[in-house]
Amino acid sequence: MSHLYPPVENFDHTQGPADAPVTLVEYGDFECPYCGAMHGVLKAVQQAMGDQLRIVFRHFPLADMHPHALHAAEFAEAAATVGKFWQAHDVLYENQNALTDADLRRYGAYLGMRAQDVASAFEGTYDEAVQKDFDSGLRSGVNGTPTLFINGHRYDGDRDAESLVAALRAAIRHA
């Protein structure tokens, strides 16, 4: 079966078992209000699916529309280097209206990150990692956020937890 997005790599940010029967890839932007709404939906989906689901997050900052999106993505990458990507991911989505550099420095302190690690994130340290995600999104036809893929196929259905769980369970049955 051909995949419409690049396969999951060891540098991807994942939650859930690597051998889960279904993988959901989200291309997201931490400042995007639709991604913020999807964050709560995906938490509910994870609860419902348990170990049957692996989630992958890839950066797709729409920097032209969202002035803080790139630094937020870079901050999340800095957090990943100390094993705190998903904590940073959650903090960013739960505080979408406060994503200035000062806010990000505060979240870094909250997560126990060193101030210089947060500062270096804004100096381009993680630009390549963010760009790699963005480029894979472009190759996969991503043109907005959030864009979801279930087992390699773009999902354009309803964005509520019930519909998404139904689509994930259908993907497991047809795998």
UniProtKB/TrEMBL annotation:
<comment type="similarity">
    <text>Belongs to the thioredoxin family. DsbA subfamily.</text>
</comment>
<dbReference type="InterPro" id="IPR013766">
    <property type="entry name" value="Thioredoxin_domain"/>
</dbReference>
<feature type="domain" description="Thioredoxin">
    <location>
        <begin position="1"/>
        <end position="173"/>
    </location>
</feature>
<dbReference type="Pfam" id="PF13462">
    <property type="entry name" value="Thioredoxin_4"/>
</dbReference>
<keyword id="KW-0413">Isomerase</keyword>
<dbReference type="InterPro" id="IPR036249">
    <property type="entry name" value="Thioredoxin-like_sf"/>
</dbReference>
<protein>
    <submittedName>
        <fullName>DsbA family protein</fullName>
    </submittedName>
</protein>
<dbReference type="InterPro" id="IPR012336">
    <property type="entry name" value="Thioredoxin-like_fold"/>
</dbReference>
<dbReference type="GO" id="GO:0016853">
    <property type="term" value="F:isomerase activity"/>
</dbReference>
